[in-house]
Amino acid sequence: MKRIPLILMGCGGVGRQLLEHIVSCRDLHAKQGSCLVQCSGYYSSSGAIQAARDVPFRIATSGVQLIPKEVSLQVVGVCDSKSLLVASDVFTRELDDNFLREVIRVKSNGSSLLTLRSFGECRVYSNPESTREITDIAGLLGKSTGLAFVDCSASSETIGVLNRVVDLGCCVVLANKKPLTSSLEEFDNLVSQPRRIRHESTVGAGLPIISSLNRIISSGDPIRRLIGSLSGTLGYVMSEVEDGKPFSQVVKAAKSLGYTEPDPRDDLSGTDVGRKALILSRLLGYRIEMDSIKIESLYPENMGPNVMSVEDFLADGLPLLDKDIQERVTRASSNGNALRYVCVINDSRCEVGIQELPKDTALGRLRGSDNVLEIYSRCYNEQPMVLQGAGAGNDTTAAGVLADILDIQDLFS
Ligand SMILES: NC(=O)c1ccc[n+]([C@@H]2O[C@H](COP(=O)([O-])OP(=O)(O)OC[C@H]3O[C@@H](n4cnc5c(N)ncnc54)[C@H](OP(=O)(O)O)[C@@H]3O)[C@@H](O)[C@H]2O)c1
Ligand SMILES: *[C@@H]1O[C@H](CO)[C@@H](O)[C@H](O)[C@H]1NC(C)=O
Ligand SMILES: *[C@@H]1O[C@H](CO)[C@@H](O)[C@H](O)[C@H]1NC(C)=O
């Protein structure tokens, strides 16, 4: 059996859903697993592959073959913001499914992982010991069986640990955007072994945006322009104001539907879209930092979180913004266009904000909270490649993370 040991950082909405998926997919993964083995004797002297009816699967392009092998995802550690729980022996043991169900239960109640200190066989660490322990485990497993670090936190504090474990030969799977949107130096280090990092869910949740871009890039098809609506919240808001509803009402409705962060200004500021835009820009090879991206905030500085409370913003601030947005919607409409909050990346320039777009494009037709990305390249010139679908949600995001983990299974022995 092939073992994929992993450490999960963050047990919020996404992290807990990932644990549920891992437990419920055990049978599926056991069947889906495969293993690359060195293959000799099945190739003729000319290198041509001979028919081999006795071999279940084979890869035609190299001297390896793929054979079925049960794969088992083994969670050897979990952490929240305060502590780390580790299996008693990371080489041979895991936190079993009963333990993982307890983690889900405890974290759903808003308690700390520490409450599980006497449940089952595990070791418990608090900062700063947890960082040292993680580094020790990474040193032990990274170069032997392999170890996957899965960052489902929303914190920038994980960057240091992630960079260290990458240096120790571990794999990294991210839903968290912050490690990829810090300095270029840290970004370069994290992606220095491209086969060992996956971060599909950092942009568009479960949508195959990163993998599609990587396929286009590696085929030598130059990407000329990306334009996308990458915030479900702002996609919803823009399509509702297009129907003539006041901006303030739409934002309040989005908040009560649970589409926004607790403070809707976290969405309206555009910072999160800016992070996604930076990840995409860097993927295209543009050597830029966060502060070189022009981001349009949908509220002025004098309505910021340091100036007024969420309640005051919703009651008194927001309505003052209605007229301006309404005028922009009307102007766009009279030009035959739709207003969208998008990121645009071309010629190493990256901008995030409201743009007028033709109504007969995928972005112009967008309704509701779907994410949409249009990709223009040599092959996708007049008609872009379009990726569209739910771009948020714990389930889809965790599914994207899980698919990333399975995608690197060949790096584990
Ligand atoms: N939800 C979505 O639809 C979606 C979509 C795409 C991407 N994402 C990304 O996925 C990540 C997780 O989202 P979420 O909604 O699950 O967030 P969340 O509910 O806020 O959960 C964050 C978790 O991370 C833990 N944490 C905080 N600092 C940590 C640290 N230094 N080390 C380890 N763990 C730490 C928190 O611990 P405590 O429990 O102790 O607070 C909490 O368990 C975020 O980066 C988000 O941007 C989410
Ligand atoms: C994601 O999980 C969080 C925490 O459990 C929950 O509050 C939120 O409603 C969930 N979001 C969705 C879209 O299910
Ligand atoms: C790049 O994007 C900017 C802003 O959207 C636009 O004005 C410019 O014409 C674009 N350049 C190319 C070559 O597409």
Automatic annotation (TrEMBL):
Family statement: Belongs to the homoserine dehydrogenase family.
GO biological process, one term: methionine biosynthetic process
Limits of the Homoserine dehydrogenase catalytic domain: 208-406
Pfam family of the protein (one): Homoserine_dh
Upper taxonomic lineage: Eukaryota, Viridiplantae, Streptophyta, Embryophyta, Tracheophyta
Protein name: Homoserine dehydrogenase
Metabolic or biological pathway, per its Swiss-Prot or TrEMBL entry: Amino-acid biosynthesis; L-threonine biosynthesis; L-threonine from L-aspartate: step 3/5; Amino-acid biosynthesis; L-methionine biosynthesis via de novo pathway; L-homoserine from L-aspartate: step 3/3
Cofactor(s), by name: a metal cation
Catalytic activity as recorded in UniProt: L-homoserine + NADP(+) = L-aspartate 4-semialdehyde + NADPH + H(+)
Active site residues according to the UniProt entry: K276 (proton donor)
Organism in which the protein naturally occurs: Escallonia herrerae
UniProt key word Amino-acid biosynthesis: yes
Chain positions recorded as L-homoserine binding sites: E261
Signal peptide start and end residues: none
EC numbers, comma separated: 1.1.1.3
Entry binding sites for NADPH: K177
InterPro entries: Bifunc_Aspkin/hSer_DH, HDH_cat, HDH_CS, HDH_short, NAD(P)-bd_dom_sf
UniProt keyword Ion transport, yes or no: no
